[in-house]
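ok trying again, last paste got cut off:
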Amino acid sequence: MQRSNAYARAAWIFLAYTVFVVLWGALVRATLSGDGCGDHWPLCNGEVVPVAPGSKTLVELTHRITSGFCWIGALAFVFWSRKRFEKGHAARRGAFWGFFFMTTEALVGAGLVLFRMVASNPDHARGWWAIAHLCNTFLLLAALTLHARWATHPGRLGARTNHARLALAGLAAVMVVGATGAIAALGDTLFPVNSLAEGFAQDLDPASHLFLKLRALHPLLALGTAGFLAAYGGALASRGHARPLALGIATLAIVQIGLGFLNVALLAPVWLQLVHLLVADGLWILLTLVAVTPQEASAHDGDRLEVDAPGAELGVEARG
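nice, full thing came through this time. structure:
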């Protein structure tokens, strides 16, 4: 069965909607609204529809509702993909993994609420929950990106070319940086300061909370990763392969460093935290696309990608 243009468009729109929901989830954390529905889940303060909810409840409830639509949408794509694509089609696998990670995302979110790892709770265990949530979110976005890509063009994900391996290495690095960023964001949220000097004093104080002691790891790892991605994207673009994606990776890596410095200088305002996360998600999505693009092969002509030697140019050889 041929791919459906309507299906592919819907898959890309769903990816964009999910990014919005992810950003709203960050808003819940940044505004300390995670306990807006108390420790009840899936109910909100023991009610289906809260009466006279406060601002924190509205923020948290909105996140739950939009997340619920995400889960329903992911499930709908599983059934829709079975109607639109033949058995074994990559889009069907993408839809399944999108639903799988959407479900684990919901379970992690429920765990955060039920175990009270939200709002002003400074428990060290919350750091592990934050890292798990961040990593699952990245895996979810990767699955939805591949789903949309494969609905547009059949293909597969692998590491059979040098630059695909580098893209996968970039994804791993971004996930590590994201994990440290989750800890840094917790530190910024739970222990706000009134000046940059006060923030540096927090980082250097031996008596500071663990989140503050680890906060300095994030900019160091981010600088190294951004430098690697900028160089990788620039080199890939100069070869003319996946040029828009490569330029996007290089550009977002540089922009992200600027946003990071600005975030520190302005003491991590909520709006800038959201922009910072949006760029990180965009970088992750572009890297996912680059990782899959060189592996794609036409289902009709059997084209195969080859690499002559490490560092060699990519070539496409037709196999009849």
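cool. Strands lie at 304-307, 314-317. The chain has two domains: 1-154, 156-297.
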